[in-house]
Write a structure and sequence with these properties.
8-stranded antiparallel sheet; 179 residues; 8 strands; 36% strand; alpha+beta; 2 helices
């Protein structure tokens, strides 16, 4: 007997998007001493000096490989950061500020997150490390210019970021169909 209906689907939170380089306007990471003590000022210029910065117009030792509503995969060149292994042991949590291109007027394009290291893999061809981080908290900016940190439900991810990824995936898919 066959079922009356079958549905094939994927949770949008788990959709990973290989971001085109131009989709990232600005991405900064800071070491996290304690994930319960993230920065609270919405202006990242008032935060301490970032550990790494990625911008479209500059060559960086930090690369974003892919992004989902629940996490991010980064690539570091250990030749540029020889103490990476010690750093990862000492700081398994990072604070992040990610600015993406604007896709819709009401959809946020700047995200503040805390993330915990989940996976570390070495690319034996290049010597680079791929680091998988799971988002644990998301910051929302208050009218007073402060960031209020909210725990992320691991089953849901960051809903606005999930929406951004899904919209961008559809745009990229449609562009490929036209070509």
């Amino acid at each position: 007997a066959l079922p009356d209906q079958m549905e094939l689907g994927q949770k949008r939170r788990h959709m990973r998007l290989d971001l085109p380089k131009n989709d990232i306007v600005d991405f900064r990471v800071w070491p996290g001493m304690d994930e319960h003590d993230p920065p609270c000022d919405a202006d990242p210029d008032k935060w301490p000096e970032p550990l790494a910065v990625y911008r479209q117009e500059t060559d960086s030792t930090l690369h974003v490989l892919d992004l989902s509503g629940g996490g991010i995969r980064l690539e570091y060149d250990p030749r540029q950061f020889p103490t990476l292994n010690d750093f990862l042991r000492r700081y398994p949590t990072l604070f992040m500020r990610l600015e993406l291109i604007r896709l819709a007027p009401k959809l946020p394009c700047v995200y503040h997150m805390t993330a915990r290291l989940r996976t570390k893999q070495e690319d034996f061809r290049t010597g680079s490390f791929m680091l998988g981080y799971e988002f644990t908290e998301c910051g929302s900016t208050s009218t007073e210019g402060q960031i209020n940190w909210i725990k992320i439900d691991p089953e849901q991810g960051i809903e606005d970021l999930v929406t951004w990824i899904f919209k961008r995936h559809l745009e990229l898919y449609r562009e490929r169909e036209v070509e």
